[in-house]
Design goal:
The chain has ten helices and twelve strands. Strand 8, helix 7 and strand 9 form a beta-alpha-beta unit. 39% of the residues are buried. It has three domains: 94 residues, 3-Layer(aba) Sandwich (Cobalt-precorrin-4 Transmethylase, domain 1), CATH 3.40.1010.20; 84 residues, 3-Layer(aba) Sandwich (Rossmann fold), CATH 3.40.50.11270; 102 residues, Cobalt-precorrin-4 Transmethylase, domain 1. A four-stranded parallel beta sheet has the order 1-12-10-11, sandwiched between helices. It has a four-stranded parallel beta sheet with strand order 3-2-4-5, with helices on both faces. Strands 7-6-8-9 form a four-stranded parallel beta sheet, sandwiched between helices. Helix 5 runs parallel beside helix 6 and helix 8 runs parallel beside helix 9. The protein is of the alpha/beta class. Helix content is 42%, strand content 18%. The protein is flat. The structure holds iron/sulfur cluster (SF4). The site of iron/sulfur cluster (SF4) has 14 residues, from helix 1, helix 5 and helix 8.
Length: 290
Amino acid sequence: MKVVVDKNSGFCFGVVRAINTAESELNKSVELFCLGEIVHNGIEVKRLEGLGLKIITNDEFRKMHDCKVLIRAHGEHPNTYLIAKHNNIELIDASCPVVLKLQERIKIGYNEIKKSNGQIVIFGKLGHAEVIGLAGQTNEEAIIITNESDLEKIDYSRPIRLFSQTTMSKDYYNYIVSIIKQRIAELNPDNIADIIIYDTICGRVTNRVQQIEKFASIFDIIIFVSGKNSSNGMFLFGISKSINKNTHLVSDCADLQMDWFNGFKTVGVCGATSTPMWLMEKVAKEIEKI
Ligand code: SF4
């Protein structure tokens, strides 16, 4: 059986940067905490915990003093910075520069739009760390849209500034945009609407869709390696499955099932932007033994 690992899969530069920052801090610090899982991949988290990284929750963070805390690539709510200042916590800020730029754009948009009684709308996953940080730029006034049913929350007679979480589906974003435009047009036949739509989905995610589609189409079977709690992972797994129905999700070698490979000659191993390359290579080696 021929087994090939997708060279385009694996951590995006934002996650690589956060992990490198954590490793270099762990080399010089006695203790380093990380606010939330540094990456949505349990196995990589365990590896970093083995080097001394301690994952903490927001509740734990609020009670801590005089220590070092790493901010992961998703970015943080402004309150996190205030709490750190108040509790003498040194923040090691590994927020992805793309997310920081988006936070800044939303903050500027919010300060402008509130003068004309407008609304900031964010297309993203309610409760996701990145979205919490983005909504924090708007004094929690942003309207969060995850799917079509949430569109009832928007007042179409008022100005709108629309942004997206960086890891959302571009196609679904375009669909949501088309419905918003349609609702504005129904309300306002002259089509004089004050709406600005920002293209804020990360290029790293957008490119991955085409790359996965191509990769999934050239192998008999695809083994997609990802943590089930990775939103990017579940999205890309769905893309792969839509192209190649013999796509299987595994988080590690233990999830591999022998009967998946019966009668097939070529296997492609790929993963999400939160999947470490070393893990995909480990899974590929295990498949080679089969
Ligand atoms: S997906 Fe893009 S925005 Fe998100 S952490 Fe990676 S590089 Fe940054």
